Amino acid sequence: MSTPFCPGYGHEPFRTLVEQYPGVDVYPAKHFRVEWGPVFHRGRLDGSARLLVLGQDPAQHETVSRRILMGTAGRRVQGFLNRLGMVHRYVMVNTFLFSIYGQQGGAQHINDAAITDYRNQWLKAILEVSDIRAVVAFGSLADKAWKNWLSSPLAAGRPALPYRKLAHPTSPEASTGDVAQATKTMLKGYSTALAALAPLLAPTDTQAPVLPYGDAFLASDLPAIPQADLPAGSPLWTGATNEWAIREGATAAEKRMNIRITAPPQR
Ligand code: URA
Fold first, then answer.
1. 109, 34 contact by CB (below 8 A)
2. 229 lines ligand 1 (CB under 6 A)
């Protein structure tokens, strides 16, 4: 059996970026779970990416896997990519390197200069190594991250890229209203984006016709995260199953310190 893996950050410009990530002086421990380390990206850094995806911040599955967009949000994003036919040539970065702690942490730090500057170095590196044809931001913080890029000197003089802001994939569950209705509204937006993005990326990886979502996610809209996106030796179930990492503890402080990982039984 041959198992693909993500080669990581051994080559420039990503090697230096990863070596020089901002720490607690930039990401305050009060608002970010800095103790779990930064999580940088998922997808192709070899120049083959054509679609750039912006997410928000890593949670517990990402913390364990060391790649972003791995949990429910990540699988929904992967389902979006599958519908689009972009199953290889994508790259994803989050707005924040560290997991947000508390409700307001993200909004409070979205315009912090040092956080923005480092993220913009990543965006510059990706745009310089890859012929990115379109950008999708999931959620309003990711949208702000892209706008902060556009207004930075690093973006000056670069050709404008087609851009879509979409609802964050787990926003229906985060809303106080009817989750089914919020999902339906979100998927309508996703379908509009699929139709707009597909011609920009043609020929897509699969070259399959792009089909719109219905009113709810199908099981096929939560595909496995490709093994090629994960560090070498990652257990296969980390990409293929869901909800295997849970924050545990009786208090907020305990929950912050403990992630319980449950492997599926082996036959
Ligand atoms: N995990 C991520 O890495 N990013 C998100 O936006 C959500 C979950």
1. no
2. no
Q: Which two tokens stand for residue 88?
A: 């290889």
Helix (H, G, I), strand (E, B) or coil at 246: strand
pLDDT tens per residue across span 6-34: 999 999 999 999 999 999 999 999 999 99
187 lines ligand 1 (CB under 6 A): no
pLDDT at 104: 84
pTM above 0.90, yes or no: yes
Report the chain's terminal Cα–Cα distance, integer Å.
Answer: 18
CA of 82 from ligand 1 middle (Å) equals: 18
Cβ(97) – ligand 1 distance below 6 Å: no
> What is the residue type of 130?
S
CATH number at residue 184: 3.40.470.10
Residue 24 forms part of a structural domain: yes
* Residue 68 Cβ < 6 Å to ligand 1: yes
- What is the number of structural domains in the chain? 1
| Nearest of 36, 45, 44, 48 to residue 16 by alpha carbon | 45
Starting from the edge strand earliest in sequence, which strands make up the sheet with 51-55, in order? Answer: 41-43, 90-94, 51-55, 134-138, 163-166
Decide if 258 is inside a domain: no
- The response to whether residue 110 sits with its C-beta less than 6 Å from ligand 1 reads no
Query: For the segment 126-150, what is each residue's pLDDT rounded down to a tens digit?
Result: 999 999 999 999 999 999 999 999 9
- Does 69 sit in the ligand 1 pocket, CB within 6 Å? yes
Residue 7 Cα to ligand 1 midpoint, Å, equals 21
For residue 42, give the ligand 1 atom closest to its CA. 3
